[in-house]
Write a structure and sequence with these properties.
By secondary structure, the protein is an alpha+beta fold. Helix 6 packs antiparallel against helix 7.
Length: 354
């Protein structure tokens, strides 16, 4: 295989994202070069990238060869497999021979037949995934919530993540129907692709293949009963508008003032058209007042985790965010800009705080 080094390294950087740290099959520590594609596989996710220069080839680039290629000068490199499962790399006056693995031991990527196929605008999907991914759970006792739900309900494409304390729901008009849950590592892989155009998604059972440009991502899907997100979001009519950046900056300052005992808790006292924000820790105290559009429907005192607030606010790019508060300090807050909804559960106040 003869290929320009910079083009090869760009592809290797993407493929390395799924190389397992401790492979169950020794050859999986490398990258398979076979029949016009470069492939990496960790049995949960696999990446395959079309590479015309690899047409007719069949060998494995081991980890040391990848490191060697990155250290070589720019220009053409030639990689030649040998009969003893070794490879020779030539670049200018450089020649190195390295031990490799038998390519036939490398796990094959699956091909889905009689599957459901969906086509979406990739940049739009990437924006939606990026906006909700922060709310995925890290609790392995409910594996399905460690991923992101994608659902076409015939009217909208819904992309949802939740962890039991917060939920984020992005939606856009779409007339197709499907439903599956993507693991967070797969979401990260999709977000690392810098492409414009359409993405094709094939699904069957617990397997999926995502195709965008020259890249294919093969993924296991998560099974289980995902949160009924439509029922979780309260239906409220009254909102107050808050300047998003001012609220985000305030929450960031709260996190600076908080300590381990306080754990970033922020108190909000809401009345008329004013939101007073306070943090009272052992190391510092903080207070700020923000004006809101419209008046609160009722006076309210409520407490939140400021880190959750920061994560949610960063997922928006609007100037003013609509905040739908409940009438009691135990009811969740909903943020909404018309295309993205976020829900944050309040923190219970102690008797001393009350």
């Amino acid at each position: 295989m003869k290929i320009d080094k910079s083009e090869l390294i760009q592809k290797l950087n993407m493929l390395e994202k799924v190389i397992p740290a401790k492979p169950s099959i020794a050859c999986m520590e490398g990258i398979l070069v076979r029949d016009g594609r470069l492939c990496a596989n960790n049995l949960q996710n696999a990446i395959s990238i079309a590479t015309p220069e690899a047409e007719g080839e069949n060998f494995i680039l081991p980890k040391k060869a990848i490191a060697m290629l990155k250290s070589m000068p720019d220009g053409l490199v030639r990689i030649t497999p040998q009969n003893d499962n070794s490879i020779i790399i030539n670049a200018g006056s450089i020649r190195t021979k390295m031990n490799s693995f038998a390519p036939d031991d490398f796990p094959e990527n699956y091909i889905l037949e009689d599957c459901q196929e969906t086509t979406l605008d990739f940049l739009e999907l990437a924006d939606m995934l990026s906006n909700v991914a922060y709310a995925t759970s890290t609790n392995e006792s409910r594996p399905v919530h460690t991923g992101v739900l994608m659902e076409g309900d015939g009217e909208n494409l819904n992309v949802v993540a939740c962890d039991g304390y917060r939920c984020s729901w992005a939606h856009t008009p779409y007339d197709g129907k499907f439903k599956f849950v993507i693991p967070k590592p797969t979401v990260k892989l999709l977000l690392s692709i810098k492409e414009d155009g359409k993405i094709s998604i094939q699904t069957k059972g617990e397997k999926a293949v995502f195709r965008i440009g020259d890249c294919e991502i093969h993924s296991r899907l998560l099974s289980g009963s995902f949160l009924e997100y439509r029922r979780v979001f309260p239906d409220r009519k009254h909102s107050v508008g808050v300047e998003r950046k001012s609220l985000l900056d305030s929450m960031s300052r709260i996190m600076i003032c908080s300590d381990d005992a306080h754990k970033g808790k922020v108190e909000m006292e809401c009345s008329r058209n004013t939101m007073q924000i306070r943090c009272r820790g052992s190391a510092a105290e903080y207070m700020e007042e923000l004006e809101v559009t419209d008046n609160f429907s009722t006076d309210l005192r409520i407490m939140f985790n400021s880190a959750f607030f920061v994560d949610a606010l960063r997922s928006y790019d609007c100037t003013v965010i609509d905040c739908f508060f409940g009438e009691q300090g135990t009811q969740p807050l909903v943020l909404d800009d018309g295309e993205l909804k976020s829900m944050i559960l309040p923190v219970r106040m102690s008797e001393e705080q009350k």
